[in-house]
Amino acid sequence: MDREKLIKYVLEATRILRMPRQNIATFGASDINYYFLSNIDGSTKVREGKVLSRRPEIIPAAGIKEIFDGFGDYPEKYTDEISRQLGKDIRVINYRFKNSLKNISRVNEPLRTVYERVLKEIKEKDSQRSAVIKGSETAWQISVMKFIIDYTMRSAPHNIRELQQKGMFPDEQGIPEYVRNRIKFLFREAEKKPEAIDELGRYLHEKGLFEQYEDLFFKLFSL
Q1: d(CA 177, CA 40)
Q2: Which of 17, 114, 182, 202 has its CA 20 to 30 Å from the CA of residue 148?
Q3: pTM (2 decimals)?
Q4: What does DSSP assign to residue 68?
Q5: 49 touches 155 (CB < 8 A)
């Protein structure tokens, strides 16, 4: 089976039996636990793993292949499918994920029974960022990636809304609103209190914006 047909087959066989209850964190890293279940001759194979979602970053568009780490060589072949599903949101926020497989076991029980037991365990732990995935034993990493795609799509509006509320998105000149607001505040303070000029200068240099505000900055000395 060629790669394209394999990916299509695995995606069609993937079922997200339980999605995490909490969204991906906007201002920090998220540990996302998953249980991947697959049928093997009447028994069930269970993979327990963790995906670390790093803090989402607002950066220029990144190559999809760079977003995933620890998923084998499938991201390169999966690029078109990921881009289609993520749409424009991934160009606004850059998510990065690292997959770590913690444990593999095989039990002589039907998948439904194992699923119910895993679900009970998750509920007892009150794990808000745990998922259960059913899929093909072949290229199982693609199924985990499919889950991450769906989870990201669900979390993205929440993340975008929180970032907008904090003024984190850059304007047409690439400067976030909160930085602009801080500079305006510091200029007002410097007009009233000369001792605030040094703080304004440090902030402009720190943000790499001194040249842009240089004329306004030096006018403060003539007030």
Answers
A1: 54
A2: 114
A3: 0.70
A4: E
A5: no
Mean pLDDT of 8-14: 90
Answer whether residue 108 shows pLDDT above 70: yes
Domains contained in the chain, number? 2
Q: 201 lies in a domain?
A: yes
Nearest alpha carbon to residue 119 among 31, 18, 49: 18
Q: At what angle do helices 3-13 and 74-86 cross, to 10 degrees?
A: 60
Q: Among residues 175, 174, 178, 223, which one has the least CA distance to residue 196?
A: 223
171 is a domain residue: no
Contacts of residue 197, defined as CB under 8 A and 6 or more positions apart, other chains included, come to 190, 217, 220, 221
Which residue segment(s) compose the domain that 218 sits in?
A: 177-222
Return d(Cα 54, Cα 160) in angstroms, integer. 15
Residue spans of beta strands (DSSP E) within 23-109: 30-40, 43-53, 68-69, 97-107
3-class secondary structure, 137 = coil
Lowest mean pLDDT among 13-22, 47-56, 63-72, 182-191: 63-72
Give the confidence band of 175 by pLDDT, cuts at 50, 70, 90.
confident
Question: In terms of domains, do 102 and 146 share one?
Answer: yes
Q: What is the total residue count of the chain?
A: 223
In a domain, 207, yes or no: yes
